[in-house]
């Protein structure tokens, strides 16, 4: 019995955490410290905070992977959720490992906007597109993150002649098309942008650089 207890403890999943970007939400965990960890299989359940019964996630039932997609199961974005994971090896089952409480609207990370740049001889026009959520309208088009948040765009310009690391904020607001004027012909400029949610005081990562020479 003691050996079984040791095995139970050694395969119990560690660090069960939700990761979420634009409401694409996955549950991640680390293996226990069992040496045969590669033969361990995992089982995932989830529930809304306050519910008494746990739901099985069928696609993540007896899987070798250490990640489970719960995007569909966490689509009520204002609700708080829990996930939990248990492991099995050689007919022995670990206890469940519980995640922290996760509320998608409050905790999902928001991605940067898509940026395209068009240049003329002394200006750059920047076009921004909000990131998409995984959720769809009735007609099938994906709903953008601006449906869920009051998003601002922050646009930065980098003058490669001066310093490739130095980003200057040239615009913050809701416009999707921004014109940056009075630039120097013949100089290489790059533009990056972020999304910013004032209500949560949270910024996205920077978008990929879009560069142009005037």
From TrEMBL:
<dbReference type="GO" id="GO:0005576">
    <property type="term" value="C:extracellular region"/>
</dbReference>
<keyword id="KW-0677">Repeat</keyword>
<feature type="domain" description="Fibronectin type-III">
    <location>
        <begin position="12"/>
        <end position="107"/>
    </location>
</feature>
<keyword id="KW-0732">Signal</keyword>
<dbReference type="Pfam" id="PF09294">
    <property type="entry name" value="Interfer-bind"/>
</dbReference>
<comment type="function">
    <text>Receptor for IL22. Binds to IL22, prevents interaction with the functional IL-22R complex and blocks the activity of IL22 (in vitro). May play an important role as an IL22 antagonist in the regulation of inflammatory responses.</text>
</comment>
<dbReference type="GO" id="GO:0004896">
    <property type="term" value="F:cytokine receptor activity"/>
</dbReference>
<dbReference type="InterPro" id="IPR050650">
    <property type="entry name" value="Type-II_Cytokine-TF_Rcpt"/>
</dbReference>
<dbReference type="InterPro" id="IPR003961">
    <property type="entry name" value="FN3_dom"/>
</dbReference>
<dbReference type="GO" id="GO:0005886">
    <property type="term" value="C:plasma membrane"/>
</dbReference>
<dbReference type="Pfam" id="PF01108">
    <property type="entry name" value="Tissue_fac"/>
</dbReference>
<dbReference type="InterPro" id="IPR013783">
    <property type="entry name" value="Ig-like_fold"/>
</dbReference>
<keyword id="KW-1015">Disulfide bond</keyword>
<protein>
    <recommendedName>
        <fullName>Interleukin-22 receptor subunit alpha-2</fullName>
    </recommendedName>
</protein>
<keyword id="KW-0675">Receptor</keyword>
<keyword id="KW-0964">Secreted</keyword>
<comment type="similarity">
    <text>Belongs to the type II cytokine receptor family.</text>
</comment>
<dbReference type="InterPro" id="IPR015373">
    <property type="entry name" value="Interferon/interleukin_rcp_dom"/>
</dbReference>
<dbReference type="InterPro" id="IPR036116">
    <property type="entry name" value="FN3_sf"/>
</dbReference>
């Amino acid at each position: 019995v003691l050996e079984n207890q040791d095995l139970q403890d050694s395969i119990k999943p560690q660090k069960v955490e939700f990761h979420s970007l634009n409401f694409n939400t996955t549950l991640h965990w680390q293996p226990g410290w069992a040496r045969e960890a590669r033969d361990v299989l995992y089982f995932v359940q989830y529930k809304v905070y306050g519910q008494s019964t746990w739901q099985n996630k069928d696609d993540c039932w007896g899987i070798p992977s250490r990640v489970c997609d719960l995007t569909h199961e966490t689509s009520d974005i204002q609700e708080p959720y829990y996930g939990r994971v248990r492991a099995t090896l050689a007919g022995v089952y670990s206890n469940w490992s519980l995640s922290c409480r996760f509320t998608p609207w409050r905790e999902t990370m928001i991605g940067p906007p898509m940026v395209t740049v068009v240049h003329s001889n002394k200006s750059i026009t920047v076009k921004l597109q909000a990131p998409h959520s995984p959720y769809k309208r009735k007609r099938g088009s994906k709903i953008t993150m601006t449906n869920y948040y009051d998003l601002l765009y922050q646009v930065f310009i980098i003058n490669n002649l001066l310093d490739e690391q130095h980003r200057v904020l040239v615009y913050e607001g809701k416009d999707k098309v921004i014109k940056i004027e009075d630039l120097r012909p013949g100089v290489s400029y790059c533009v990056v942008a972020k999304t910013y949610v004032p209500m949560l005081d949270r910024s996205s990562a920077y978008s990929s650089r879009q560069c142009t020479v005037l």
